[in-house]
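Below is a complete specimen:
___
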Amino acid sequence: MNRAQTPSALSVLLVEDSPFDSRLLIEALRPATLSGEVVVQTVKRLSLAIAELQRVSFSCVLLDLGLPDGQGVDNVRALREIDSSAAIVVLTGLDDERSATQALQLGAQDYLLKGEIDGERLLKLIRHAVQRNRQTVELEQQLDGSFFQASRDPLTLLPNRPLLLDRARLQLAEAKQRHGEFGVACLLLDGLESARAQFGAVVADELARRLAELMAENLRGSDTLARLDDEQFALLLYPLPEAATLSEAARQLMQRVEAVRQIGHCTVQPSLRIGLAVFAGGPESAEELLVRARNLASSLPAGRSGLAGLQLEETAVAPAPTPAASFTPVDLDGRWQPWVDTETGLCAGLELIPLVGGQVMPTSAAPTDSAQSAEWVLACAEYLGRAWSDWVGGGFQAERLALNLPATCLRQRDLPARLHSVLAAFDLPSACLNLEVEELAFRNPTPYQEALQALHAMGFRLVLDGDGGDTSLGQLSQLPLAGIKLSQGQLRGLLDDSLQGASRRYFNAVLGAARGLGIPAIATGVDSAEALAALRVIGLRWMQGERVVVPLEAHLVPVQWARPVRLA
Protein backbone atom coordinates (compact mmCIF):
# COMPACT_ATOMS: atom_id res chain seq x y z
CA MET A 1 0.00 0.00 0.00
CA ASN A 2 1.41 3.35 -0.99
CA ARG A 3 1.88 5.77 1.85
CA ALA A 4 1.44 9.52 1.59
CA GLN A 5 4.65 11.51 1.83
CA THR A 6 5.30 12.86 5.33
CA PRO A 7 4.94 16.66 5.19
CA SER A 8 7.58 19.05 6.57
CA ALA A 9 5.33 19.72 9.58
CA LEU A 10 5.24 17.17 12.38
CA SER A 11 2.20 14.97 11.77
CA VAL A 12 0.73 13.67 15.02
CA LEU A 13 -1.89 10.96 15.44
CA LEU A 14 -3.68 11.28 18.79
CA VAL A 15 -5.26 7.98 19.89
CA GLU A 16 -7.42 8.82 22.91
CA ASP A 17 -11.01 7.85 23.73
CA SER A 18 -11.49 10.36 26.56
CA PRO A 19 -12.95 13.64 25.18
CA PHE A 20 -11.56 15.53 28.18
CA ASP A 21 -7.97 14.26 27.82
CA SER A 22 -8.12 14.65 24.05
CA ARG A 23 -9.23 18.28 24.36
CA LEU A 24 -6.40 19.05 26.84
CA LEU A 25 -3.78 17.69 24.45
CA ILE A 26 -5.20 19.52 21.44
CA GLU A 27 -5.29 22.78 23.36
CA ALA A 28 -1.72 22.28 24.55
CA LEU A 29 -0.58 21.90 20.92
CA ARG A 30 -2.79 24.69 19.54
CA PRO A 31 0.02 27.29 19.22
CA ALA A 32 2.10 24.81 17.22
CA THR A 33 -0.85 23.84 15.01
CA LEU A 34 -1.72 27.49 14.32
CA SER A 35 1.88 28.15 13.25
CA GLY A 36 1.82 25.14 10.94
CA GLU A 37 4.56 23.35 12.86
CA VAL A 38 2.27 20.49 13.90
CA VAL A 39 -0.71 18.78 12.26
CA VAL A 40 -2.91 16.73 14.60
CA GLN A 41 -5.41 14.02 13.72
CA THR A 42 -7.48 12.28 16.41
CA VAL A 43 -9.08 8.83 16.62
CA LYS A 44 -10.77 7.09 19.55
CA ARG A 45 -10.10 3.40 18.84
CA LEU A 46 -7.05 1.24 18.21
CA SER A 47 -8.57 -0.21 15.03
CA LEU A 48 -8.99 3.30 13.60
CA ALA A 49 -5.39 4.12 14.50
CA ILE A 50 -4.20 1.01 12.66
CA ALA A 51 -6.25 2.01 9.60
CA GLU A 52 -4.74 5.51 9.61
CA LEU A 53 -1.18 4.20 9.93
CA GLN A 54 -1.81 1.91 6.96
CA ARG A 55 -3.01 4.90 4.95
CA VAL A 56 -0.67 7.74 6.01
CA SER A 57 2.80 8.07 7.55
CA PHE A 58 2.83 9.99 10.84
CA SER A 59 5.80 11.50 12.60
CA CYS A 60 4.44 10.63 16.04
CA VAL A 61 1.58 8.77 17.73
CA LEU A 62 0.27 9.94 21.12
CA LEU A 63 -1.18 6.67 22.38
CA ASP A 64 -3.49 5.96 25.30
CA LEU A 65 -2.99 2.48 26.77
CA GLY A 66 -6.66 2.10 27.74
CA LEU A 67 -8.86 2.04 24.63
CA PRO A 68 -12.25 0.41 23.98
CA ASP A 69 -10.68 -2.16 21.65
CA GLY A 70 -7.15 -2.35 23.03
CA GLN A 71 -5.74 -2.50 26.53
CA GLY A 72 -2.21 -2.15 27.89
CA VAL A 73 1.16 -2.39 26.21
CA ASP A 74 -0.29 -4.57 23.44
CA ASN A 75 -1.46 -1.28 21.91
CA VAL A 76 2.18 -0.28 21.40
CA ARG A 77 3.05 -3.63 19.88
CA ALA A 78 0.09 -3.49 17.49
CA LEU A 79 1.04 -0.05 16.13
CA ARG A 80 4.76 -0.87 15.91
CA GLU A 81 3.94 -3.87 13.72
CA ILE A 82 2.05 -1.59 11.32
CA ASP A 83 4.60 1.22 11.05
CA SER A 84 7.80 1.32 13.09
CA SER A 85 8.80 4.66 11.54
CA ALA A 86 6.23 6.53 13.66
CA ALA A 87 7.52 7.51 17.10
CA ILE A 88 5.15 6.44 19.89
CA VAL A 89 4.61 8.50 23.04
CA VAL A 90 2.46 6.70 25.60
CA LEU A 91 -0.20 8.60 27.55
CA THR A 92 -0.55 7.21 31.04
CA GLY A 93 -1.96 8.04 34.46
CA LEU A 94 -0.07 8.71 37.66
CA ASP A 95 -0.80 5.20 38.92
CA ASP A 96 0.37 3.33 35.83
CA GLU A 97 3.99 4.27 35.26
CA ARG A 98 4.90 0.56 35.32
CA SER A 99 2.96 -0.02 32.10
CA ALA A 100 4.67 3.00 30.58
CA THR A 101 8.05 1.46 31.38
CA GLN A 102 6.99 -1.80 29.71
CA ALA A 103 5.85 0.21 26.69
CA LEU A 104 9.34 1.69 26.37
CA GLN A 105 10.77 -1.83 26.28
CA LEU A 106 8.45 -2.59 23.36
CA GLY A 107 9.58 0.36 21.26
CA ALA A 108 7.76 3.42 22.57
CA GLN A 109 10.12 6.41 22.71
CA ASP A 110 8.68 8.22 25.74
CA TYR A 111 5.64 8.56 27.97
CA LEU A 112 3.59 11.48 29.24
CA LEU A 113 1.61 11.67 32.46
CA LYS A 114 -1.88 12.92 31.66
CA GLY A 115 -1.95 15.28 34.61
CA GLU A 116 1.27 17.04 33.53
CA ILE A 117 0.45 18.41 30.07
CA ASP A 118 2.31 21.58 29.15
CA GLY A 119 2.34 22.87 25.56
CA GLU A 120 6.05 23.67 25.23
CA ARG A 121 7.14 20.56 27.08
CA LEU A 122 4.82 18.38 24.99
CA LEU A 123 6.15 19.81 21.72
CA LYS A 124 9.74 19.32 22.85
CA LEU A 125 8.97 15.75 23.92
CA ILE A 126 7.43 14.99 20.52
CA ARG A 127 10.44 16.42 18.66
CA HIS A 128 12.89 14.39 20.72
CA ALA A 129 10.79 11.22 20.34
CA VAL A 130 10.70 11.63 16.55
CA GLN A 131 14.45 12.19 16.40
CA ARG A 132 15.27 9.20 18.61
CA ASN A 133 12.89 6.93 16.72
CA ARG A 134 14.43 7.97 13.40
CA GLN A 135 17.86 7.02 14.73
CA THR A 136 16.50 3.73 16.08
CA VAL A 137 14.89 2.83 12.73
CA GLU A 138 18.09 3.65 10.83
CA LEU A 139 20.10 1.47 13.21
CA GLU A 140 17.62 -1.43 12.86
CA GLN A 141 17.80 -1.16 9.07
CA GLN A 142 21.58 -1.23 9.22
CA LEU A 143 21.50 -4.27 11.50
CA ASP A 144 18.97 -6.04 9.25
CA GLY A 145 21.15 -5.32 6.22
CA SER A 146 24.24 -6.53 8.05
CA PHE A 147 22.43 -9.71 9.11
CA PHE A 148 21.32 -10.40 5.54
CA GLN A 149 24.82 -9.92 4.19
CA ALA A 150 26.36 -12.04 6.94
CA SER A 151 23.87 -14.90 6.49
CA ARG A 152 23.68 -15.16 2.68
CA ASP A 153 25.84 -16.55 -0.08
CA PRO A 154 26.85 -13.47 -2.13
CA LEU A 155 26.50 -15.24 -5.49
CA THR A 156 23.10 -16.93 -5.19
CA LEU A 157 21.68 -14.99 -2.16
CA LEU A 158 20.74 -18.35 -0.64
CA PRO A 159 21.35 -18.94 3.08
CA ASN A 160 24.98 -19.76 3.89
CA ARG A 161 26.37 -22.46 6.19
CA PRO A 162 25.90 -20.62 9.56
CA LEU A 163 22.28 -19.74 8.81
CA LEU A 164 21.58 -23.26 7.53
CA LEU A 165 22.98 -24.80 10.71
CA ASP A 166 20.98 -22.40 12.89
CA ARG A 167 17.78 -23.47 11.15
CA ALA A 168 18.83 -27.12 11.19
CA ARG A 169 19.33 -27.05 14.96
CA LEU A 170 15.88 -25.52 15.49
CA GLN A 171 14.13 -28.00 13.21
CA LEU A 172 16.06 -30.92 14.70
CA ALA A 173 14.97 -29.86 18.20
CA GLU A 174 11.40 -29.67 16.92
CA ALA A 175 11.67 -33.15 15.37
CA LYS A 176 13.02 -34.58 18.64
CA GLN A 177 10.21 -32.97 20.65
CA ARG A 178 7.48 -34.10 18.26
CA HIS A 179 9.06 -37.50 17.48
CA GLY A 180 9.11 -36.59 13.80
CA GLU A 181 11.50 -37.36 10.97
CA PHE A 182 13.95 -34.71 9.78
CA GLY A 183 16.13 -34.90 6.69
CA VAL A 184 19.33 -33.17 5.55
CA ALA A 185 20.24 -33.53 1.87
CA CYS A 186 23.65 -32.69 0.43
CA LEU A 187 23.57 -31.71 -3.25
CA LEU A 188 26.89 -31.89 -5.11
CA LEU A 189 26.89 -30.09 -8.46
CA ASP A 190 29.38 -31.62 -10.87
CA GLY A 191 30.42 -29.58 -13.89
CA LEU A 192 31.01 -26.21 -12.24
CA GLU A 193 34.78 -26.65 -11.94
CA SER A 194 35.15 -27.81 -15.53
CA ALA A 195 33.06 -24.84 -16.71
CA ARG A 196 35.32 -22.49 -14.72
CA ALA A 197 38.48 -24.07 -16.15
CA GLN A 198 37.19 -24.04 -19.74
CA PHE A 199 35.17 -20.80 -19.93
CA GLY A 200 36.15 -18.72 -16.90
CA ALA A 201 34.57 -17.54 -13.67
CA VAL A 202 31.77 -15.52 -15.31
CA VAL A 203 30.26 -18.57 -17.05
CA ALA A 204 30.76 -20.79 -13.97
CA ASP A 205 29.06 -18.25 -11.70
CA GLU A 206 26.13 -17.86 -14.08
CA LEU A 207 25.78 -21.65 -14.21
CA ALA A 208 25.78 -21.82 -10.40
CA ARG A 209 23.06 -19.14 -10.22
CA ARG A 210 20.97 -20.91 -12.86
CA LEU A 211 21.20 -24.27 -11.09
CA ALA A 212 20.48 -22.69 -7.69
CA GLU A 213 17.26 -21.22 -9.12
CA LEU A 214 16.27 -24.65 -10.45
CA MET A 215 16.83 -26.31 -7.08
CA ALA A 216 14.84 -23.60 -5.27
CA GLU A 217 11.85 -23.65 -7.64
CA ASN A 218 9.64 -26.25 -5.98
CA LEU A 219 10.62 -26.02 -2.33
CA ARG A 220 7.99 -26.12 0.40
CA GLY A 221 7.76 -23.18 2.75
CA SER A 222 9.36 -25.26 5.52
CA ASP A 223 12.38 -26.33 3.44
CA THR A 224 15.71 -24.45 3.44
CA LEU A 225 18.16 -24.54 0.53
CA ALA A 226 21.65 -23.19 1.25
CA ARG A 227 24.95 -22.88 -0.62
CA LEU A 228 27.87 -24.16 1.42
CA ASP A 229 30.73 -23.74 -1.09
CA ASP A 230 31.36 -23.63 -4.84
CA GLU A 231 29.83 -27.01 -5.68
CA GLN A 232 28.06 -28.03 -2.47
CA PHE A 233 24.48 -27.13 -1.58
CA ALA A 234 22.38 -28.43 1.31
CA LEU A 235 18.63 -28.84 1.79
CA LEU A 236 16.70 -29.15 5.07
CA LEU A 237 13.53 -31.23 4.86
CA TYR A 238 11.11 -31.01 7.77
CA PRO A 239 8.70 -32.62 8.04
CA LEU A 240 10.16 -35.36 5.88
CA PRO A 241 7.98 -36.25 2.87
CA GLU A 242 7.16 -39.85 2.05
CA ALA A 243 9.94 -41.83 0.38
CA ALA A 244 8.14 -42.15 -2.94
CA THR A 245 7.51 -38.40 -3.05
CA LEU A 246 11.16 -37.67 -2.29
CA SER A 247 12.39 -40.11 -4.91
CA GLU A 248 10.23 -38.59 -7.63
CA ALA A 249 11.21 -35.03 -6.68
CA ALA A 250 14.91 -35.97 -6.76
CA ARG A 251 14.51 -37.64 -10.17
CA GLN A 252 12.82 -34.57 -11.66
CA LEU A 253 15.43 -32.22 -10.17
CA MET A 254 18.32 -34.26 -11.59
CA GLN A 255 16.66 -34.19 -15.01
CA ARG A 256 16.24 -30.40 -14.89
CA VAL A 257 19.87 -29.93 -13.86
CA GLU A 258 21.11 -32.15 -16.69
CA ALA A 259 18.88 -30.27 -19.16
CA VAL A 260 20.94 -27.09 -18.70
CA ARG A 261 23.33 -27.32 -21.65
CA GLN A 262 24.05 -23.74 -22.65
CA ILE A 263 25.29 -20.67 -20.80
CA GLY A 264 25.42 -18.02 -23.49
CA HIS A 265 27.44 -19.60 -26.31
CA CYS A 266 29.20 -22.04 -23.97
CA THR A 267 28.24 -25.71 -23.77
CA VAL A 268 28.12 -27.10 -20.22
CA GLN A 269 27.39 -30.55 -18.75
CA PRO A 270 26.21 -30.32 -15.14
CA SER A 271 25.02 -33.28 -13.09
CA LEU A 272 23.71 -33.63 -9.54
CA ARG A 273 24.59 -36.13 -6.80
CA ILE A 274 22.23 -36.16 -3.80
CA GLY A 275 22.90 -37.72 -0.42
CA LEU A 276 20.06 -37.84 2.13
CA ALA A 277 20.65 -38.29 5.86
CA VAL A 278 17.44 -38.97 7.80
CA PHE A 279 17.06 -38.35 11.52
CA ALA A 280 14.53 -40.66 13.15
CA GLY A 281 15.61 -40.45 16.77
CA GLY A 282 18.93 -40.62 18.59
CA PRO A 283 21.69 -38.22 19.68
CA GLU A 284 22.87 -37.18 16.20
CA SER A 285 23.47 -33.41 15.82
CA ALA A 286 22.66 -31.21 12.83
CA GLU A 287 26.36 -30.98 11.96
CA GLU A 288 26.69 -34.78 12.05
CA LEU A 289 23.66 -35.19 9.80
CA LEU A 290 25.18 -32.79 7.28
CA VAL A 291 28.48 -34.72 7.29
CA ARG A 292 26.63 -38.01 6.80
CA ALA A 293 24.66 -36.55 3.89
CA ARG A 294 27.91 -35.27 2.31
CA ASN A 295 29.53 -38.70 2.65
CA LEU A 296 26.52 -40.35 1.01
CA ALA A 297 26.60 -37.92 -1.93
CA SER A 298 30.38 -38.31 -2.30
CA SER A 299 30.01 -42.10 -2.45
CA LEU A 300 28.20 -41.79 -5.81
CA PRO A 301 30.25 -41.76 -9.04
CA ALA A 302 31.37 -38.22 -9.93
CA GLY A 303 29.90 -36.79 -13.11
CA ARG A 304 26.77 -38.94 -12.92
CA SER A 305 23.49 -37.88 -11.30
CA GLY A 306 22.29 -40.14 -8.51
CA LEU A 307 20.57 -40.42 -5.13
CA ALA A 308 21.91 -42.17 -2.03
CA GLY A 309 20.44 -42.66 1.43
CA LEU A 310 16.75 -43.05 0.56
CA GLN A 311 15.21 -46.44 1.30
CA LEU A 312 12.05 -47.00 -0.73
CA GLU A 313 9.42 -49.27 0.76
CA GLU A 314 8.69 -52.46 -1.14
CA THR A 315 4.92 -52.06 -1.01
CA ALA A 316 4.26 -55.09 -3.23
CA VAL A 317 5.67 -57.52 -0.67
CA ALA A 318 4.99 -55.55 2.50
CA PRO A 319 3.26 -57.50 5.27
CA ALA A 320 -0.39 -56.86 5.89
CA PRO A 321 -0.98 -53.91 8.21
CA THR A 322 -1.76 -54.57 11.84
CA PRO A 323 -5.51 -54.44 12.39
CA ALA A 324 -6.55 -50.99 13.53
CA ALA A 325 -8.27 -52.33 16.61
CA SER A 326 -4.96 -53.67 17.95
CA PHE A 327 -3.76 -50.09 18.37
CA THR A 328 -6.59 -49.20 20.75
CA PRO A 329 -4.74 -49.49 24.08
CA VAL A 330 -6.67 -51.20 26.87
CA ASP A 331 -4.83 -49.28 29.62
CA LEU A 332 -5.16 -45.79 28.17
CA ASP A 333 -4.90 -43.13 30.86
CA GLY A 334 -4.28 -39.41 30.69
CA ARG A 335 -3.13 -36.24 32.35
CA TRP A 336 -4.37 -32.74 31.61
CA GLN A 337 -1.96 -29.95 30.67
CA PRO A 338 -3.59 -26.53 31.21
CA TRP A 339 -2.76 -23.48 29.18
CA VAL A 340 -2.96 -20.26 31.14
CA ASP A 341 -4.01 -16.72 30.30
CA THR A 342 -1.09 -14.86 31.89
CA GLU A 343 -3.04 -11.60 32.06
CA THR A 344 -5.60 -13.12 34.45
CA GLY A 345 -3.58 -16.07 35.77
CA LEU A 346 -6.55 -18.37 35.08
CA CYS A 347 -6.66 -21.58 33.07
CA ALA A 348 -7.92 -21.03 29.54
CA GLY A 349 -8.12 -24.65 28.46
CA LEU A 350 -6.87 -28.21 28.92
CA GLU A 351 -4.93 -30.46 26.57
CA LEU A 352 -5.15 -34.21 26.95
CA ILE A 353 -1.77 -35.94 27.36
CA PRO A 354 -2.57 -39.60 26.70
CA LEU A 355 -0.61 -42.22 28.67
CA VAL A 356 -0.21 -45.94 28.05
CA GLY A 357 0.89 -47.96 31.03
CA GLY A 358 1.45 -44.74 32.95
CA GLN A 359 3.86 -43.37 30.33
CA VAL A 360 3.58 -41.18 27.24
CA MET A 361 3.49 -43.56 24.29
CA PRO A 362 7.07 -44.00 22.96
CA THR A 363 7.82 -43.09 19.36
CA SER A 364 8.48 -46.71 18.43
CA ALA A 365 4.95 -47.68 19.50
CA ALA A 366 3.12 -44.70 18.00
CA PRO A 367 0.81 -45.63 15.11
CA THR A 368 2.02 -44.41 11.71
CA ASP A 369 -0.53 -46.06 9.41
CA SER A 370 -3.47 -43.71 8.76
CA ALA A 371 -6.09 -46.24 9.91
CA GLN A 372 -4.17 -47.09 13.07
CA SER A 373 -3.58 -43.39 13.76
CA ALA A 374 -7.31 -42.73 13.44
CA GLU A 375 -8.11 -45.52 15.92
CA TRP A 376 -5.64 -44.02 18.38
CA VAL A 377 -7.30 -40.60 18.08
CA LEU A 378 -10.75 -42.12 18.61
CA ALA A 379 -9.52 -43.97 21.71
CA CYS A 380 -8.16 -40.70 23.10
CA ALA A 381 -11.44 -38.95 22.25
CA GLU A 382 -13.39 -41.58 24.17
CA TYR A 383 -11.14 -41.10 27.21
CA LEU A 384 -11.60 -37.33 26.89
CA GLY A 385 -15.37 -37.72 26.65
CA ARG A 386 -15.50 -39.85 29.82
CA ALA A 387 -13.52 -37.23 31.73
CA TRP A 388 -15.86 -34.51 30.48
CA SER A 389 -18.89 -36.53 31.56
CA ASP A 390 -17.43 -37.04 35.06
CA TRP A 391 -16.69 -33.31 35.43
CA VAL A 392 -20.16 -32.28 34.30
CA GLY A 393 -21.70 -34.83 36.65
CA GLY A 394 -19.79 -33.19 39.49
CA GLY A 395 -21.03 -29.72 38.60
CA PHE A 396 -17.91 -28.52 36.73
CA GLN A 397 -17.57 -27.80 33.02
CA ALA A 398 -14.21 -26.95 31.43
CA GLU A 399 -14.64 -24.24 28.82
CA ARG A 400 -12.08 -25.59 26.34
CA LEU A 401 -10.49 -29.01 25.83
CA ALA A 402 -7.80 -29.91 23.30
CA LEU A 403 -6.89 -33.11 21.50
CA ASN A 404 -3.86 -33.69 19.28
CA LEU A 405 -4.65 -34.72 15.71
CA PRO A 406 -1.77 -36.24 13.66
CA ALA A 407 -1.90 -35.45 9.97
CA THR A 408 -1.86 -39.17 9.08
CA CYS A 409 -5.28 -39.82 10.63
CA LEU A 410 -6.84 -37.14 8.38
CA ARG A 411 -6.38 -39.45 5.40
CA GLN A 412 -9.27 -41.51 6.81
CA ARG A 413 -12.39 -39.97 5.27
CA ASP A 414 -14.70 -41.37 7.95
CA LEU A 415 -12.69 -39.92 10.85
CA PRO A 416 -14.71 -36.67 11.23
CA ALA A 417 -18.04 -38.50 11.45
CA ARG A 418 -16.67 -41.14 13.83
CA LEU A 419 -15.01 -38.53 16.05
CA HIS A 420 -18.23 -36.52 16.19
CA SER A 421 -20.17 -39.67 17.09
CA VAL A 422 -17.78 -40.60 19.92
CA LEU A 423 -18.06 -37.18 21.56
CA ALA A 424 -21.82 -36.96 21.01
CA ALA A 425 -22.20 -40.11 23.11
CA PHE A 426 -20.95 -38.05 26.08
CA ASP A 427 -22.93 -34.92 25.14
CA LEU A 428 -19.65 -33.08 24.54
CA PRO A 429 -20.31 -30.23 22.05
CA SER A 430 -17.88 -30.03 19.12
CA ALA A 431 -17.38 -26.31 19.76
CA CYS A 432 -15.82 -27.12 23.15
CA LEU A 433 -12.97 -29.08 21.57
CA ASN A 434 -9.79 -27.73 19.99
CA LEU A 435 -8.32 -30.17 17.49
CA GLU A 436 -4.58 -29.49 17.32
CA VAL A 437 -3.69 -30.30 13.72
CA GLU A 438 -0.12 -30.84 12.54
CA GLU A 439 1.21 -27.95 10.47
CA LEU A 440 1.92 -30.35 7.61
CA ALA A 441 -1.83 -30.57 6.94
CA PHE A 442 -1.99 -26.80 6.34
CA ARG A 443 1.20 -26.48 4.28
CA ASN A 444 0.19 -29.35 1.99
CA PRO A 445 -3.61 -29.35 2.31
CA THR A 446 -4.55 -31.51 -0.71
CA PRO A 447 -4.54 -34.94 1.04
CA TYR A 448 -6.15 -33.54 4.18
CA GLN A 449 -8.48 -30.78 2.99
CA GLU A 450 -11.64 -32.89 2.85
CA ALA A 451 -11.27 -34.03 6.46
CA LEU A 452 -10.36 -30.53 7.70
CA GLN A 453 -13.38 -29.01 6.00
CA ALA A 454 -15.65 -31.72 7.42
CA LEU A 455 -14.31 -31.18 10.96
CA HIS A 456 -14.83 -27.43 10.63
CA ALA A 457 -18.36 -27.92 9.32
CA MET A 458 -19.14 -30.08 12.36
CA GLY A 459 -18.18 -27.21 14.67
CA PHE A 460 -14.75 -28.38 15.83
CA ARG A 461 -12.18 -25.64 16.45
CA LEU A 462 -8.94 -26.20 14.48
CA VAL A 463 -5.64 -25.17 16.03
CA LEU A 464 -2.36 -25.11 14.10
CA ASP A 465 0.00 -27.43 16.01
CA GLY A 466 3.29 -25.84 15.01
CA ASP A 467 4.63 -22.31 14.91
CA GLY A 468 3.18 -21.27 11.57
CA GLY A 469 6.30 -19.47 10.49
CA ASP A 470 6.78 -21.75 7.50
CA THR A 471 3.16 -21.47 6.41
CA SER A 472 1.87 -18.44 4.55
CA LEU A 473 -0.93 -16.28 5.94
CA GLY A 474 -2.96 -17.24 2.87
CA GLN A 475 -2.60 -20.94 3.69
CA LEU A 476 -3.47 -20.35 7.34
CA SER A 477 -6.61 -18.41 6.44
CA GLN A 478 -8.04 -21.11 4.15
CA LEU A 479 -9.90 -22.53 7.16
CA PRO A 480 -10.90 -20.50 10.24
CA LEU A 481 -8.27 -21.27 12.87
CA ALA A 482 -8.89 -21.08 16.61
CA GLY A 483 -5.22 -20.66 17.54
CA ILE A 484 -1.55 -21.37 16.85
CA LYS A 485 0.65 -23.49 19.14
CA LEU A 486 4.26 -22.30 19.22
CA SER A 487 6.84 -25.03 19.52
CA GLN A 488 9.32 -25.52 22.33
CA GLY A 489 12.12 -25.70 19.74
CA GLN A 490 11.41 -22.17 18.57
CA LEU A 491 11.31 -20.97 22.17
CA ARG A 492 14.74 -22.46 22.82
CA GLY A 493 16.08 -20.72 19.73
CA LEU A 494 14.68 -17.42 20.98
CA LEU A 495 16.39 -17.87 24.35
CA ASP A 496 19.66 -18.88 22.71
CA ASP A 497 19.55 -15.66 20.68
CA SER A 498 18.82 -13.56 23.81
CA LEU A 499 15.48 -12.37 22.35
CA GLN A 500 17.25 -10.80 19.39
CA GLY A 501 18.20 -11.46 15.80
CA ALA A 502 16.50 -13.88 13.43
CA SER A 503 14.66 -15.81 16.18
CA ARG A 504 13.07 -12.63 17.53
CA ARG A 505 12.02 -11.51 14.05
CA TYR A 506 10.62 -14.99 13.43
CA PHE A 507 8.55 -14.85 16.64
CA ASN A 508 7.33 -11.36 15.77
CA ALA A 509 6.21 -12.61 12.36
CA VAL A 510 4.30 -15.54 13.88
CA LEU A 511 2.65 -13.33 16.49
CA GLY A 512 1.79 -10.82 13.79
CA ALA A 513 0.13 -13.57 11.74
CA ALA A 514 -1.88 -14.65 14.80
CA ARG A 515 -3.04 -11.09 15.42
CA GLY A 516 -3.85 -10.66 11.74
CA LEU A 517 -6.10 -13.72 11.95
CA GLY A 518 -7.52 -12.63 15.31
CA ILE A 519 -6.50 -15.84 17.11
CA PRO A 520 -4.36 -16.63 20.17
CA ALA A 521 -0.78 -17.90 19.96
CA ILE A 522 -0.07 -20.47 22.69
CA ALA A 523 3.52 -21.18 23.78
CA THR A 524 4.21 -24.81 24.75
CA GLY A 525 6.98 -26.38 26.78
CA VAL A 526 7.51 -23.40 29.11
CA ASP A 527 9.72 -25.22 31.60
CA SER A 528 11.87 -22.48 33.16
CA ALA A 529 11.56 -19.05 34.75
CA GLU A 530 13.80 -17.72 31.97
CA ALA A 531 11.41 -18.95 29.28
CA LEU A 532 8.40 -17.56 31.14
CA ALA A 533 10.01 -14.13 31.50
CA ALA A 534 11.12 -14.07 27.85
CA LEU A 535 7.64 -14.85 26.56
CA ARG A 536 6.12 -12.16 28.74
CA VAL A 537 8.63 -9.62 27.42
CA ILE A 538 7.70 -10.30 23.80
CA GLY A 539 4.02 -10.08 24.68
CA LEU A 540 2.86 -13.67 24.43
CA ARG A 541 -0.25 -14.05 26.56
CA TRP A 542 -1.14 -17.76 26.57
CA MET A 543 1.38 -20.31 27.86
CA GLN A 544 1.55 -24.00 28.59
CA GLY A 545 4.20 -25.96 30.43
CA GLU A 546 5.45 -27.27 33.74
CA ARG A 547 6.81 -23.85 34.80
CA VAL A 548 3.27 -22.45 34.49
CA VAL A 549 1.11 -25.39 35.64
CA VAL A 550 2.23 -29.02 35.87
CA PRO A 551 0.02 -31.65 34.19
CA LEU A 552 -2.98 -32.48 36.37
CA GLU A 553 -4.84 -35.65 37.17
CA ALA A 554 -8.52 -35.49 36.25
CA HIS A 555 -9.80 -35.03 39.80
CA LEU A 556 -7.57 -31.95 40.29
CA VAL A 557 -8.82 -30.13 37.21
CA PRO A 558 -11.95 -28.56 38.81
CA VAL A 559 -9.82 -27.35 41.73
CA GLN A 560 -7.10 -25.75 39.56
CA TRP A 561 -9.45 -24.25 36.98
CA ALA A 562 -10.74 -21.44 39.21
CA ARG A 563 -7.46 -20.97 41.12
CA PRO A 564 -5.24 -18.16 39.74
CA VAL A 565 -1.68 -19.17 38.87
CA ARG A 566 1.08 -17.08 40.42
CA LEU A 567 3.50 -16.18 37.65
CA ALA A 568 7.09 -15.05 38.17
Notes: Residues 10-150 form a domain with the Rossmann fold fold (CATH 3.40.50.2300).
